[in-house]
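Methods: holo model generation. Sequences were used as deposited, without trimming of termini or removal of tags, and paired with ligand SMILES retrieved from the corresponding compound records. Each pair was processed once, and we did not select among multiple samples. The sequence and S-adenosylmethionine SMILES for this entry were:
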Amino acid sequence: MLFDKYIYKLSPEEFYDFLTSYGKGVEVLSEGESFVEFALYEPVKGLKPVKVIKVEIIKPENVYRPIRVKNLMVLPSWIKPVVIRQGGAFGTGLHESTRLCLGLLQEELKPGWSVLDVGTGTGILAIASKRLGADRVLAIDIDPVAVEECRHNAEENCVEIECLLGEPKDVRESFDLLVANLELDIFRHLWSKMERLFKHTAIVSGLYGKESVREFLSLCGLKPAKIRSLKNWYGLVLRI
Ligand SMILES: C[S@@+](CC[C@H](N)C(=O)[O-])C[C@H]1O[C@@H](n2cnc3c(N)ncnc32)[C@H](O)[C@@H]1O
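and the model returned the structure below.
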């Protein structure tokens, strides 16, 4: 976005008088014995600028990056951290299928929604859902190690998630959003049990290659609202 930057030049006495009456900060550009040159982002009544230039205001998001010093990480306040133990479960965030879900969750999930994460692994998607403002989050997995890892990671991230050993047939309720990063073969067996588990939005990933996407779509009989890919891995958004 472009803004007008007003450059003024006053004697030091005039400048300090002005500062006292102005009551806000100014950007001092240069100072000499007989002058102070300074800038404001608004015109001042009674003062004539020496020039007005157009400047682009850069958003802090485009400047500040996470800073790592050895084992400490300093994060800008808008970054939402998800801390994951490198244990025995799938879901460190390195895999494309997980990253597709993390991206789509940020686009789809609205604060206050309930979320079901099928095949939670480390709990990475469940924890991310909480960070994005989800209300109730249920995370299930058939692997006891994953359930243990998910519980540990939820605690580490100070978020409340129900992490249960189980599969879709064990879930009785329906959730606003279903996220499932599984595999085509698992979807072949499970989709009929999963379609009743979401009220309106599903994020599905773990599909490798276009042929898997085609087969999955004919299996679920829905038109995808979004299709994303990373290195031939696909993530879909479905809406009913
Ligand atoms: C590819 S990992 C995904 C982990 C994590 N959600 C992520 O996105 O990185 C798939 C997980 O699904 C679990 N899983 C496989 N079959 C399942 C089933 N029938 N019901 C629930 N979880 C299942 C596996 O144990 C594994 O932890």
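The chain has six helices and 13 strands.
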